[in-house]
Amino acid sequence: MYDALAGPIAEHVRTAAVTIAFIVPIAIAAMWGATHSLSTVATIALYAGALVAVFGAVFGAFYAVARVLGAIQLVLLRRLGDRLDRDAYLGMLGRAPAGSRLHVRLSFAAAWPDDTRGDVVDAVRHWMPRLEHVAWDGDVLDLRHQPVETSTLLVETGMIATRDRSQRSNRYIHGAFRRVVRRVIRRRDDRARIAKIDVTVVE
Questions:
Q1: Residue 142 CB-density burial (10 A; 0-12 exposed, 13-18 middle, 19+ buried)
Q2: Cross-strand bridge partners of residue 157
Q3: Given this model, what pLDDT does residue 64 score?
């Protein structure tokens, strides 16, 4: 859950962590070996030890950062109050992605006048061009985001071989919802209070 809440920034942090974890041990082994005239076997042993140590430190820091970012997102979700069913939303983030499109339905405390509804749709499309669908469904404003990536490519490296595998995550789904909150929900709240926020994921 915290990994998904951390949002897309966690992907960049993970990439940086992998890069650092490989480059730093090589630099340590090369400099130490050249300075102390180590044999090839000793240099390899030094590299292996540095690799383990740096991997542990870097990925420990990565998961700590992910937890902090996730905790910050929990605070931001709480600011939405009872309008969002946080337990259901967090449960959705903790499961495997059910689709690639974020679907948000906004119910207002008071109905919008008919002659302003078209302006609301135009404003929302202007604020958030990534929404592929913006329309009224009765008194509910129906929003659907463009498809987002739900698979993260991981690279596993061993002493002999390297292989790729994919891990499914709702990280970018939450990133899309964060944009809806920032660009749409907060702005609409200034004009007419949003009473309920329903969030689902569709294919």
A1: middle
A2: 162
A3: 73
